[in-house]
Write a sequence for this structure.
């Protein structure tokens, strides 16, 4: 009897990862290809869709080779992808533009004007907050500026859709990626007519909408040969990386909240019959017809620590930098850090937001600033979590993954700020495992999404320190007040 494996293909912002798992969720092999970002103007961030498609092929090939898998041992491959990218494509399937990714801020003026006008109406129907990351805002910028690729485009699509088009000659998008456009009506599960009219595009310029379990078969033979797989291997649509990170970590039941912090960060929860936040502080994206995911992303996760490392000219590792903060008690002896150094999404949805150190005195040293930055990142996530709590109720269980989850100090800080036990998976490939599991559901190899809970290898559980939690509640109250005062000057 042959062994059985599954692959998750995760097309992220910084890299493409192909991860081979066994059916218990253990990583067999992984390959990562780094994506180049281009900055043609201040505030613009683009990527080359053809380059990403090639990197995806290479990642699959390398992961297959490293796993030494035979053709009949790989059951299926599931897709995961970062959200909010937008490419103008011609009738032959060739890109007319680079991919404008979520971090691009060129449509900030359009987003601000939209929020002053009809923005809340679109948010209530789509669940996509009004912000420059939204393809709705990007399309509005294209329309108002006469962007040439927009005027010539036959189709508009995300990076994930572009890869699928190249490999399968199909234009198809899953519920969650469609939700992330600002053009998807979450009540009807169809493209929103009013949103399309608003940005002057037609329904046939957008892809067919499908569930995450939609199978993709008949991959082009030259592509499958290059990958080193059988061209009969079924691929599965999967979903956006946020939904799949929750699934892959096992945070799928009511009250189970996932915190992911890499360069950026997010806090999310699955919910049935989810409603949008009347304060416009969280997103609400479809996953299946029954389940949505609600939460909020932050621009400022590990990037804030990276910024501090460079600012201080710290020549050691990140571990060495964060260890300095261990010498400082909770509250950083009075320093507060508001981590809006890269603008901010949730809970502010304000690209003009600016970072700030508050309470600095002559007695503060390097270690105080390191502690303050780590606490600022965590307070920001906690603030988003409070907005999520208004919509979904108090969290019962907290799962944490991402690059910062490798820091024991930061994990303890999360437990202490939230006042909850923190559960950490052994693998940091949660989105890829979520994509792989969705593919297994699709082909009938496993019974349900919920069954993944039996197949997520978990590491340690971090328990909160109640004394520190009470300290942090008082510090957070001050953090929140200063944040509100600061917003007047953005």
């Amino acid at each position: 009897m042959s062994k059985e494996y599954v692959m998750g293909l995760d097309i992220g912002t910084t890299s493409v990862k192909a991860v081979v798992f066994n059916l218990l969720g253990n990583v067999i092999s992984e390959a990562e290809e780094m994506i180049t970002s281009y900055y043609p103007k201040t505030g613009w961030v683009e990527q080359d869709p053809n380059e990403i498609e090639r990197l995806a092929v290479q990642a699959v090939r390398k992961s297959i080779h490293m796993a030494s898998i035979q053709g009949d041992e790989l059951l299926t491959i599931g897709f995961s992808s970062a959200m909010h990218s937008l490419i103008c494509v011609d009738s032959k399937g060739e890109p007319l533009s680079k991919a404008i990714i979520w971090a691009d801020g060129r449509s900030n003026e359009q987003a601000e004007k939209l929020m002053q006008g009809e923005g809340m109406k679109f948010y209530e129907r789509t669940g996509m907050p009004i912000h420059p990351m939204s393809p709705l805002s990007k399309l509005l910028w294209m329309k108002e500026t006469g962007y040439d690729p927009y005027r010539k485009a036959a189709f508009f699509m995300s990076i994930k859709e572009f890869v699928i088009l190249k490999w399968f000659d199909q234009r198809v998008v899953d519920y969650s990626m469609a939700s992330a456009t600002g053009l998807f009506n979450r009540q009807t599960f169809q493209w929103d007519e009013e949103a399309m009219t608003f940005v002057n595009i037609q329904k046939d310029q957008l892809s067919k909408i499908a569930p995450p379990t939609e199978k993709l078969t008949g991959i082009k033979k030259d592509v499958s040969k290059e990958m080193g797989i059988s061209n009969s291997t079924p691929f599965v649509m999967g979903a956006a990386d946020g939904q799949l990170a929750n699934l892959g970590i096992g945070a799928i039941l009511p009250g189970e909240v996932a915190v992911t912090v890499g360069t950026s960060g997010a806090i999310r929860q699955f919910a049935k019959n989810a409603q949008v936040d009347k304060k416009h502080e969280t997103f609400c994206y479809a996953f299946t017809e029954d389940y949505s995911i609600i939460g909020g992303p932050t621009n400022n996760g590990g990037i804030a620590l990276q910024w501090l490392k460079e600012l201080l000219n710290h020549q050691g590792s990140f571990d060495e930098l964060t260890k300095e903060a261990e010498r400082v008690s909770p509250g950083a002896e009075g320093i507060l850090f508001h981590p809006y150094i890269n603008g901010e999404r949730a809970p502010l949805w304000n690209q003009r937001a600016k970072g700030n150190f508050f309470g600095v005195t002559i007695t503060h040293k390097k270690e105080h600033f390191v502690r303050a930055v780590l606490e600022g990142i965590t307070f920001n996530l906690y603030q988003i979590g409070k907005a999520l709590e208004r919509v979904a109720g108090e969290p019962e269980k907290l799962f944490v993954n991402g690059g910062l989850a490798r820091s024991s100090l930061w994990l303890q800080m999360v437990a202490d700020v939230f006042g909850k036990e923190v559960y950490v998976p052994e693998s940091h490939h949660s989105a890829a495992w979520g994509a792989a599991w969705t593919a297994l559901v699709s082909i009938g190899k496993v019974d349900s999404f919920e069954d993944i809970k039996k197949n997520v290898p978990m590491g340690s559980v971090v328990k909160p320190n109640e004394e520190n939690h009470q300290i942090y509640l008082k510090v957070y109250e001050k953090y929140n007040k200063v944040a509100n005062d600061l917003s007047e000057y953005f």
User: Anything to note?
Assistant: The chain has a mean pLDDT of 96.
